[in-house]
Amino acid sequence: MAHVSAAERRPQLIKAAIDLMTREGVAAGSTRAIAAELGVAQATVHYIFGTKEGLYRAVMDQLTQDLVAQVERAAPTDGGFEETASVLAAALWRTVREQPASHQLLSELTMFALRSPALKESLETHYRGWTEVTARLITEAAERAGQPLAQPVDTIARFFLAGFDGLTQQHLALPDEEAEHTCLQAFVSAVVAMAGGRLELVAVPTD
């Protein structure tokens, strides 16, 4: 059998872990089960990631990077503040609708990490990364529009992400497309108002 380097095997194991835990939940994601998913020795997982927590950190990082990349690709380069907020919210919501399993797995990993000291740093990095990306996109939109922000940008970013976490959990537990779209519009309007814009309903694209 041809030798596969650790650099090549690493992304394969991360994908195998994501596939397995998406189907069966985080509790099923032992290093033995993940190794079996890919058809490699359990020792390979420990050699590459050290521990199960090391693999879980890599899974969280990969899921986050994939979602952030999709949102960043959708960010307008010439729109006003309200338009940018609306487009970014729509892009992020599209990932929830089209990839609910990824968001559910992230939620499960978050709860697991809160009880695991070995994953605390990774969880903080996950949320800090989301906050930094959101804050940057808000800042760029405000600068394009010449709009001073009424609140610190990190506060606006945290508010945005906190609201989105709530909408995501509701969608996973009790989906209702019509109600969700109305809530999304109201939520984006609240973000715009918090940033210093007009308090009015902001249209959010459905696709």
From TrEMBL:
InterPro entries per record: Homeodomain-like_sf (IPR009057), HTH-type_TetR-like_transc_reg (IPR050109), HTH_TetR (IPR001647), Tet_transcr_reg_TetR-rel_C_sf (IPR036271), TetR_C_31 (IPR041583)
PROSITE patterns in the record: HTH_TETR_2
Family annotation (PANTHER family): HTH-TYPE TRANSCRIPTIONAL REGULATOR BETI (PTHR30055:SF234), HTH-TYPE TRANSCRIPTIONAL REGULATOR RUTR (PTHR30055)
Keyword Transcription regulation: yes
Keyword set, alphabetical order: DNA-binding, Transcription, Transcription regulation
Upper classification of the organism: Bacteria, Bacillati, Actinomycetota, Actinomycetes, Kitasatosporales
DNA-binding region: 30-49
Protein name: TetR/AcrR family transcriptional regulator
Sequence ranges assigned to domain HTH tetR-type in this UniProt record: 7-67
Domain of life according to the entry: Bacteria
UniProt xrefs under Pfam families: TetR_C_31, TetR_N
